[in-house]
Q: What sequence folds into this?
């Protein structure tokens, strides 16, 4: 064990779209702690992308440095198996004390958590249900109401004794702060905080509920012509039935989502304060990153889905504050990066021995100002082939009914049509191409059409761009199609 190795804090909010941060130019966002850190001692990547637009596949990817296709982690119920590398397990095995407070969505629960952490935190006292879920019928209304599938919970009631809505997120954050004050002094620690916010339902307590100016929000992307868009988007749009909701409602929903992000920023500020008070801050690397984004009203949709790759779903916050021993030129960088780069960067900082091949690349050279270039393209993938029955997730909710909040999406994932088709995205700074197995491909010029409203896949003027992106996609699969074990077998 190298005693000088930095502590590692991995703060992983769920479903935070990158646009909702003040330092990226969104004046409606309230993220003062992140903004201050980026201004003085951290780097925020404007063009960071996840490798799958839902929770489990994305987490399996950034915890290994593998793309989802490498070992088939493309669903919510195909997690990292005991023989597969997991960053948390590798840190623990190398001498880190690993504290895990938060959701799973990473490893099979039936095997337990002992290989991955020293403490899997169990809050006490037990927290309240998320988003007043015990009162879901009240805030959803009747199945006939337009807002039934909107995921809008609104203002949450803080408890009188704590002045916060003491849900699991708050319990995990407060538990992490307690751990910081009691952390061992004879070994480096890693805190892993995969919290739920700002994942919908959209609900938050005061002061964050009223914090966001409803009139300063940037407008949502309009409902597109569905003719050349993925069929699953049109299906979700029709199933969610949100078309009659007015601008006031949409502004309210989006303001609450912004308020949820603001609450997470406040919680990050509390963690930073604890690290500073205990003298750990300078020797701690802090990573803040989300697993994927959220529609939040764009295209008339809420939530997300598994096999479309709009920037609101795939572009995520990714902020790194290195330990003070690592030179850093703070600010915002435009380089294309992927969440799989997390693994390589932590390896670099923690001095982890290379045990297997993966596809992440350390971001330290960018933090240090040695380069502005990282990748020429980023990739995201999802969906399934028709014959992949195990990937439609019907086993998870065999009795799926229309009362389920996720019904508008899940019913399409289980269909025999093209809606849940396997698909893959390649994106450069300017262009995005999506190859879809059973329906029309997509091609966008993001300079002229940043909202991805006009699919130009059939435009002859884009033929050379399309050929270039197809060639890049082919090379991507050739380079990343598998990994070969470092263990060499005996033939006799």
A:
């Amino acid at each position: 064990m190298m005693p000088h190795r930095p502590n590692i804090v991995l703060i992983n909010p769920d479903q935070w779209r990158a646009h909702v941060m003040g330092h990226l130019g969104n004046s409606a966002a309230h993220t003062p702690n992140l903004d201050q850190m980026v201004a003085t001692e951290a780097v925020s990547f404007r063009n960071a992308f996840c490798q799958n637009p839902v929770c489990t596949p994305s987490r399996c990817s950034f915890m290994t440095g593998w793309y989802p296709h490498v070992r088939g982690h493309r669903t919510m119920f195909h997690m990292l198996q005991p023989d597969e590398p997991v960053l948390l397990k590798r840190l623990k095995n190398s001498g880190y004390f690993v504290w895990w407070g938060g959701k799973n969505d990473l490893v099979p629960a039936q095997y337990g958590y002992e290989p991955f952490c020293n403490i899997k935190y169990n809050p006490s006292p037990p927290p309240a249900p998320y988003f007043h879920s015990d009162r879901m019928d009240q805030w959803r209304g009747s199945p006939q109401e337009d807002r039934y599938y909107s995921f809008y919970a609104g203002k949450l009631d803080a408890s009188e004794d704590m002045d916060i809505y003491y849900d699991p997120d708050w319990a995990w954050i407060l538990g992490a702060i307690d751990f910081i004050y009691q952390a061992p002094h004879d070994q480096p620690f890693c805190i892993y905080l995969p919290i739920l916010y700002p994942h919908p339902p959209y609900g938050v307590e005061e002061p964050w509920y009223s914090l966001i100016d409803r009139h300063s929000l940037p407008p949502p992307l309009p409902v597109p012509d569905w003719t050349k868009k993925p069929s699953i988007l049109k299906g979700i749009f029709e199933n969610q039935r949100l078309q009659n909701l007015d601008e006031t409602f949409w502004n309210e929903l989006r303001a609450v989502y912004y308020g949820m992000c603001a609450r997470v920023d406040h919680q990050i500020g509390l963690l930073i304060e604890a690290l500073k008070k205990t003298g750990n801050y300078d020797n701690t690397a802090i990573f803040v990153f989300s697993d994927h984004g959220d529609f939040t009203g764009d295209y008339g949709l809420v939530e997300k889905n598994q096999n479309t790759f709009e920037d609101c779903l795939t572009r995520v916050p990714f902020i790194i504050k290195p330990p003070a021993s690592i030179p850093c030129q703070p600010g915002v960088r435009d380089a294309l990066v992927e969440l799989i780069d997390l693994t390589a960067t932590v390896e670099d900082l923690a001095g982890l021995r290379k045990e297997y091949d993966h596809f992440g690349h350390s971001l330290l050279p960018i933090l240090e100002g040695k380069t502005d270039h990282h990748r020429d393209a980023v990739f995201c993938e999802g969906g399934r082939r028709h014959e992949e029955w195990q990937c439609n997730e019907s086993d998870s909710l065999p009795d799926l009914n229309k009362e389920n909040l996720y019904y508008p999406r899940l019913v399409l994932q289980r269909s025999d049509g093209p809606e849940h088709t396997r698909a893959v995205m390649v994106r450069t700074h300017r262009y995005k191409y999506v190859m879809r197995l059973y329906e029309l491909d997509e091609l966008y010029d993001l300079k002229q059409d940043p909202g991805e409203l006009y699919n130009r896949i059939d435009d002859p003027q884009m033929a050379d761009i399309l050929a270039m992106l197809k060639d890049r996609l082919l090379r991507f699969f050739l380079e990343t199609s598998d990994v070969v074990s470092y263990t060499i077998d005996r033939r006799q």
